[in-house]
């Protein structure tokens, strides 16, 4: 598939009220703004740091995407939220300075301090985030009494707007930052995610947005999702024919059911008329190969939760065709191992949109 996911190398939350507290192993990442429990008349905030491996990013670009165009999205999945503003904006910034994830969790007593925090970025608590005399092209933000909270490059930012009825899961387009990491114009220290502008310390609002971290025991860890168009539609010289009937059956001819997580597998589709026109022939009409039109797409669902893992996309989940018929490729290591998944197919024929959900399941092995 041309939707490939890599999982976070490390992540954590920085809390302004707890300047040296580390939460590197907490199952939740938080974006919050509350009345400070420590500093009178001040607000407290929480920000998220998250990093994906240089090797993983380089590998997917060089081994799979190549020189073609692509999009990269930072995706985080909401666990719960309270006090959300009617409208708000989240932003991702490229982090300036390396940081250590640590082994703490929120609520540790005593607090764990062996990693990055609001004040420090290293495991030994001997390197603070810069709070003045910033290097060129680098900045940070904080309240007067509470310096810290990370540093970031000013050359790039990704934003996502949310309203009352919008999905609250995060999908930030970080393609420009990934390109900068790949060319070396920026060092990949990961992304800092925060609420935008004055809202983060606005005394008129208190809110909490909780997201699943890489240490969650759910199927919703944060991911970096690459999308590109790998479809090919080359049926020249094929004995297969284009289907133009809406009364068709679509099945998968080579689903072996279980796949190693390192496999790249090409699923082949059987397409045939449900009610073939009667004709004289020396072989079964059902052996005549057909292929779907170019406006055909696939999707993948988690079988247990019925959550869409890869949605139908007119740009990035196109179904290909060659002389043998229709097909699409799935990169198994972009899926969570030890889970069952279900394949769906959508096609547009003669102005009608048809979706085939025929309970085609497969499992990714660890």
Number of domains: 2
Structural class: mainly beta
Unreliable spans are: none
The helix/strand order is EEEEHEEEEEEEHEEEEEEEEEEEEEE
Give the quaternary arrangement of the chains.
single chain
How many β-strands, per DSSP? 25
Largest sheet: 8 strands, antiparallel
**Shape from CA axes?**
elongated
Head-to-tail CA distance between termini = 19 Å
**Percent strand:** 35-45%
How many helical stretches?
2
What's the average pLDDT? 90
Radius of gyration: 24 Å
Percentage of residues assigned to helices: under 10%
Describe the structure in your own words.
The strands form 6 sheets. Strands 2, 3, 4, 6, 7, 10, 12 and 13 form an 8-stranded antiparallel sheet that branches. Strands 17-25-24-20-21 form a 5-stranded mixed sheet, with no helix packed on it. It has 2 domains: 3-227, no CATH class; 241-365, Sandwich (Immunoglobulin-like), CATH 2.60.40. The protein is built from 2 helices and 25 strands. It has helices at 54-65, 175-183, and strands spanning 3-7, 10-15, 28-35, 43-51, 71-76, 78-82, 88-94, 138-139, 152-153, 158-162, 170-173, 191-195, 207-212, 223-227, 241-242, 248-252, 258-260, 264-273, 290-291, 296-302, 308-310, 320-322, 325-331, 339-349, 352-365. The protein has 366 residues and is mostly beta strands. The mean pLDDT is 90. The longest helix has 12 residues, at 54-65. The radius of gyration is 24 Å and the shape is elongated. Helices cover 6% and strands 39% of the residues.
């Amino acid at each position: 598939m041309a939707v490939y996911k890599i999982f976070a190398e490390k992540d954590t939350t920085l809390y302004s009220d707890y300047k040296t507290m580390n939460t590197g192993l907490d199952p939740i990442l938080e974006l919050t703004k509350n009345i400070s429990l420590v500093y009178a008349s001040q607000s407290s905030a929480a920000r998220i740091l998250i990093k994906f491996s240089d090797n993983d990013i380089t590998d997917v670009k060089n081994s799979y995407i190549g020189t073609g165009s692509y999009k990269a999205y930072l995706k985080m999945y909401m666990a719960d939220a309270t006090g959300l503003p009617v409208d708000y904006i989240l932003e991702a910034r490229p982090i300036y300075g390396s940081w250590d994830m640590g082994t703490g969790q929120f609520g540790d007593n005593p607090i764990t301090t062996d990693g990055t925090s609001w004040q420090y970025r290293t495991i030994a608590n001997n390197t603070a985030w810069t709070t003045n005399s910033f290097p060129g092209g680098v900045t940070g933000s904080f309240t007067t009494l509470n310096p810290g909270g990370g540093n970031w490059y000013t050359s790039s930012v990704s934003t996502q707007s949310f309203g009352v009825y919008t999905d609250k899961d995060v999908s930030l387009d970080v393609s420009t930052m990934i390109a900068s990491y790949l060319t070396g114009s920026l060092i990949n220290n990961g992304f800092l995610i925060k609420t935008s502008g004055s809202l983060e310390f606005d005394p008129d609002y208190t809110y909490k947005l909780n997201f699943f971290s890489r240490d969650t025991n759910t199927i919703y860890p944060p991911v970096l999702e690459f999308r590109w168009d790998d479809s090919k539609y080359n049926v020249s010289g094929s004995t297969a024919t284009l289907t133009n009937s809406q009364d068709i059956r679509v099945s998968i001819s080579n689903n072996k059911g279980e796949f190693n997580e390192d496999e790249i597998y090409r699923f082949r589709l059987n397409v045939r008329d449900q009610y073939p026109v009667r004709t004289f022939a020396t072989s079964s009409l059902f052996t005549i190969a057909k292929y779907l039109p170019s406006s055909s797409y696939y999707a993948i669902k988690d079988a247990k939760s019925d959550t869409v893992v890869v949605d139908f996309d007119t740009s990035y989940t196109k179904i290909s065709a060659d002389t043998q018929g229709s097909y699409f490729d799935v990169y198994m290591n972009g899926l969570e191992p030890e889970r069952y998944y279900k394949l769906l197919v959508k096609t547009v024929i003669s102005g009608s949109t048809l979706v085939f959900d025929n309970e085609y399941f497969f499992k990714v092995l660890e």
